Amino acid sequence: MPVRVAENLPPAQVSGANSGHSLPPACSLLSVGQAFSGTQNVSNVLKDEAWRVNVRIQGCDFEHGYLCGTMEALNVPLADTPVVTFWEGEIVDNKNYTFYTGKWEATPQNDVRHWSKFNSFMPLLNQVEADGGKSLDLSNYPYIFMRWKEQYFVNVGKDCGLTIAGFYYVCFSCSDGSISGFYYDPHSSPFQKLELKATCEGRSGFSFSSYQLQ
C-alpha cells in the first residue's frame, strides 16, 4: 500500500495578477536524465494493490511547457515483463497550459476535483475557479503542476490487457523533488495515486533496461 506523503506547504505568496505569465522555476530535479521511484495505487477497493513504478525524464522544455519521459511498472499482474510506456507532459504555466485540461474527457469540474487532492493547490483554488487560474503568477511557487499523458507502450503490445486511455494530474515539489499524482480515466478506478521520490541514481545511468523509443 502506498504511503501518503504529507505535503507541508510553506507560506506562499500567490500573486493575484500576472503581468508577464512567468514560467515556473526550472527546478534542478526536473531535468533530463533524472529518475524517480515509487508506487501507484491501482485500486480503491484493494488498498494493498500497488505497482512499483520507475519514471525517467527524457526531455524537458520549460519555454514551451513540455516534458516527456518513460514510466516502468514492475509488478503488473499477469504481465511477464515490466510494462514500459512513453508519456508526454504539459506544465501548467498559464502561458502554454492552464489548470483546465479541455480534452481527454476531463471537464473543468473533473480538473478542480483532482487538483484539489493536492494540499499545495488549495491556496490557488479560488483564483482557478474564478478565471481558470490565468491571472496567477506561478514563477516562484514551490510546486509545479503538470499533466502526464501516456502515448504508447514501449515494450509490449496494445493487447497486453492494460489501458493508457487516461492521464495523470501531477504535482512536483521543488524543495525535495517528490512527485504526487492522480490518474484520471472515467472508465477506470478513480483517484489512483502515484507517489514518487527522486533517486540519487538519476543522472548516473541507473535503472531502465534499454528500450527503443519510437
Describe this structure in words.
Strand 2 and strand 3 form a beta hairpin. This protein is mainly beta. Strands 1-2-3-4-5-6-7-8 form an eight-stranded antiparallel beta barrel. It has two helices and eight strands; from the N terminus they run ββββααββββ. Helix content is 7%, strand content 31%.
Name the overall outline.
globular
Largest sheet: 8 strands, antiparallel, barrel
The overall pLDDT average reads: 81
- Based on DSSP secondary structure assignment, what is the total number of beta strands? 8
- Ends: how far apart? 33 Å
Overall helicity? under 10%
Low-confidence stretches: 1-24, 204-214
Q: Please work out how many helical segments DSSP would assign.
A: 2
- Structural class based on helices, strands and sheet pairing: mainly beta
Q: What gyration radius follows from the Cα positions, in whole Å?
A: 17 Å
* Residue share in β-strands: 25-35%
Task: Tell me the series of helices and strands, N- to C-terminal.
Answer: EEEEHHEEEE
Major sheet: arrangement of strands: 1-2-3-4-5-6-7-8
